[in-house]
Amino acid sequence: MAIPGGRGREPGHFAGRFGQARVQSAVRRFLATRQLTAIALLSAQGGLATAAAWIVASDFLGQDAPVFAPVAALATIASATGQRARQTVELLIGVGLGITVADALLYLVGSGAWQIALVVSASIALGLLVAGRSGALVSQAGATATLFATLAGNQRSLELPRIIDAAVGASIGFLAVALLRPVDPLRAVDRAAKPFFTDLAAAIHTTARALATGDRNLAVRALDSLDKIDMDTVRLNEALQAAEETVSIAPWWRHRRRRYQQYRAAVDQLGAFTTDIRVMARRVATLLEYQEPVPPPLHQAIDTLGDALAHLHRDCTTARASGRTRQAVLDAARLAGHASRHQTCTFGETVMLQIRSAASDLLRATDVTPQEANHLVRDAATKPDDAR
Predict the structure, then answer these.
(1) Domain 185-381, what architecture?
(2) Phi-psi region of 112 (alpha: psi -120 to 50; beta: other; left: phi over 0)
(3) Helix or strand (DSSP H, E) at 330
(4) Distance of CA 227 to CAs 50, 231, 274, 310, Å?
(5) What is d(CA 362, CA 273) in angstroms, rounded to the nearest whole number?
(6) Which terminus, N or C, of the chain has the lesser number of Cβ atoms within 10 Å?
(7) What residue intervals traverse the membrane (predicted)?
(8) Above 70 in pLDDT, residue 370?
């Protein structure tokens, strides 16, 4: 049977076009998951830093074959963003440790295959004793000992020059990170913050909906969804750690410090808030299981608490305190106070207390002192029903 408009075309032609489209789509998805700008930047930083480290160490300091300078520069740049300072210190200690152990043992036992094995094993063992399982120090001590044992031969007194090489390389690596304009550090924080705030707010709103409808299964699903918040928190803290490093050493992004500090202050307080929400969701599920009476203001208070978290996210993203976060938090506390004047039982009272505790912690995330936060929440919760 002929295909309309397809005369002269074999079935394989359409399959080929379909396969080509799938390949192109796969390539686009692959590239979309790779941050090409960041890759290009890291590559340029690595290449320029290693060349600069070699030139400084050999031409300006007169070091002979300063192999450790470019190695240290590259290791500094390749270190996990946000951990460069710590890992660079470990790198320098590892270099010194590896050189010292290699030099001492080679002097005593000479050079050769089994001597290299002894030197490397001793360096790694000493590194583990010094730093536990710190990967940067241990791996650098072993790698340095290997290079030193195989390339340095029986030459003596190379410890200080090679440590200077490593220090020069690490310093140039830091300069490369600071001076070669990096990607906006807060962009990564925004990406990491979105799932954290969105998932947590969704769990709060779902808990409120479960309470309003009396659906215990929905409350359990909301509680289960909070498990993924832990990973969201880890990713957000890693992004903040990386941003702190960049806004501290890169002059291009010093103007981002205020927004970073606002994010950092908020996230530092949101750990306690997340714990409050987890306890509250568990108590809501139990309340519904025991079919305790639920006053209408209770689910409204929880829902308003979710709105307050969304407002805080917008404030952090825009670096402006709109005042809507604090107002929503106090509204949640006020509604919880209204609920307490209705008939409630044990778990209902516990939910109200958790709402007030969460409200206080969320207020602290807006740069309110603990004492002031507790005072504001208490005042809001004790207001008459007709007051705002």
Answers:
(1) Up-down Bundle (1.20)
(2) left
(3) helix 324-339
(4) 43, 8, 11, 19
(5) 6
(6) N
(7) 36-57, 63-82, 89-108, 114-131, 163-180
(8) yes
Residue with tokens 């030139």: 55
Contacts of 110 (CB under 8 A, 6+ apart): 154
Q: Which residue shows structure tokens 């925004």?
A: 190
Q: Give the whole-angstrom CA distance, residue 293 versus residue 297.
A: 12
Q: Which amino acid is at 149?
A: A
Distance of CA 148 to the CA centre of its chain: 36
Residue 125 per-residue DSSP state = H
One-letter identity of residue 74:
L
* pLDDT tens by residue, 242-258: 788 778 777 777 778 88
Question: Whole-prediction pTM value?
Answer: 0.67
**Which of 221, 199, 202, 209 is CA-nearest to residue 282?**
221
CA-CA-CA-CA torsion sign (311, 317, 323, 326):
positive
Q: How many CB atoms lie within 10 A of CB 140?
A: 28
pLDDT in tens, 30-82: 444 445 666 777 788 788 888 988 898 888 887 777 877 887 787 777 665 55
The answer for 344, left when phi > 0, alpha when psi is -120 to 50, beta otherwise, is beta
**How much is the average pLDDT of 117-144?**
75
Task: Report the pLDDT averaged over residues 187-212.
Answer: 93
Other CB atoms within a 10 A radius of the CB of residue 86 amount to 14
Is pLDDT of 8 > 60? Answer: no
Outline which parts of the chain fall under CATH 1.20.58.220: 185-381
- Residue 273 pLDDT level (bands cut at 50, 70, 90): very high
Q: Which residue has 């939910």 as its token pair?
A: 351
Lowest mean pLDDT among 142-156, 308-322, 367-381: 142-156
Query: ∠ CA 29-30-35 to the nearest 5 degrees?
Result: 105
CA-nearest of 302, 277, 293 to 361 is 277
Q: How confident is the model at residue 324 (pLDDT cuts 50, 70, 90)?
A: very high
First to last CA, the chain: 76
Task: Report the C-alpha gap between 89 and 87 in whole angstroms.
Answer: 5
Concatenating the DSSP letter of every residue in 282-344 gives HHHHHHHHTT----HHHHHHHHHHHHHHHHHHHHHHHT---SHHHHHHHHHHHHHHHHTTS--
